[in-house]
Amino acid sequence: MACNGCSTGNGLPKGCKNNGACGVDGCDKLSVFDWLSNMNQPLEELSCKTVEVRFKNERKEFYNNIDNLPLKVGDIVAVEGNPGHDVGIISLTGALVKAQLKHKNIKDTDNLLKVYRFANQKDIDVWQECRKKEHQMMLDSRRISREIGLEMKISDVEYQGDGTKVTFYYTSESRVDFRQLIREFATAFRCRIEMKQIGYRQEAAKLGGIGSCGRELCCSTWLTDFRSVSTAAARYQQLSINPQKIAGQCGKLKCCLNYELDSYLDALKDFPRYDLVIKTVAGEVSSSKIDVFKREVWLSYIKSSNMTWYKFTVDQVNSFIQDNKKGKDVPSLEDLDKKYNKTEDNIFGGALLEENELTRFEEKKPKRRKKRNRQKKPTNSTNKGESVKKKNTNRRKKYKKKHNKPNKDEN
Fold this sequence. Notes:
Layout: H1 43-46, E1 50-54, E2 60-64, E3 76-80, E4 85-92, H2 95-103, E5 115-118, H3 121-148, E6 153-159, E7 165-171, H4 179-189, E8 192-197, H5 200-207, H6 218-221, H7 231-236, H8 243-246, H9 261-267, E9 277-279, E10 284-291, E11 296-301, E12 309-313, H10 314-326, H11 333-340, E13 347-348, H12 351-355, H13 381-403
């Protein structure tokens, strides 16, 4: 999201304040890379009269270039509206437009609206003035709908290029009666009103934001089609079914849950079913945990108070299942663990209790040894004085013997 108009000479990015509509490809929202531009193709293949025009946020539409204008990506054009005309930016031209039409299953291109001309300075000035009014108009429309008491949320407002029509995008869980609302809007804004209901994912795409991954939302940058996402995608990827973690800013399940789902489904083809029961000599066994990346399965007894899990590879577990189908007796998990696993780290015991402890992420400090309080013998003041006198006399005797001095008592 950067272009030459978004920065100044001293390196402080002030931004062009056009929300991705400055006409430079590096700043476009949902911009498309023309990968056919450097390829040599016949001229009849490149001659495509249909162009793609981008408007505010993610709205894009196809128009016919009947007058064969020399259009290129980034040109600001005036296109046919209903009524009047609209102003947009060319986002795609050439043979890649045919691929987009085929991808979106648009076959009849004759009935498309047409491109009038290049936008002149008057068209651009009116367009920019209307853009400045949209934010305040959105706030006023929310206030009016709240005073009427309608259960709806107006998420975005878009002016037509000539300023004759305003489109209000809203979200609501139930049907809304707009008869009184449209009259209030027409009186307050003095223009033609159009209401369009959008989903919560389309609302997030219009508003934009930063996801939990630290990047911009996929729906507001490059994602154009919203596929259905179910909780089964999270289960296949061994994710916790926590709505706060697997839900996006739109309140629905994250679209990125489908990105790696096919890889997980291919890896899980070799794994046994989660509800499969294996019969052993010591009792029935089921899978308690799987590791898709290491291709490992943890088995445990179903009817047992012991919560010990034993780790085996996928091939080993499949061999146990084949032995059950042939009617062979499968040894106990303890014997199988001694046979296949030689380390004690393969036993998963007591981890369930550790997962539920609140202090499992805290660093455990080494315990300090407590100092024992030694009981001192009580001494009286008289006994203490006598003991000091005895020590002094003993010191004198030793000193005199050493230097051959007579004692006073002997004299």
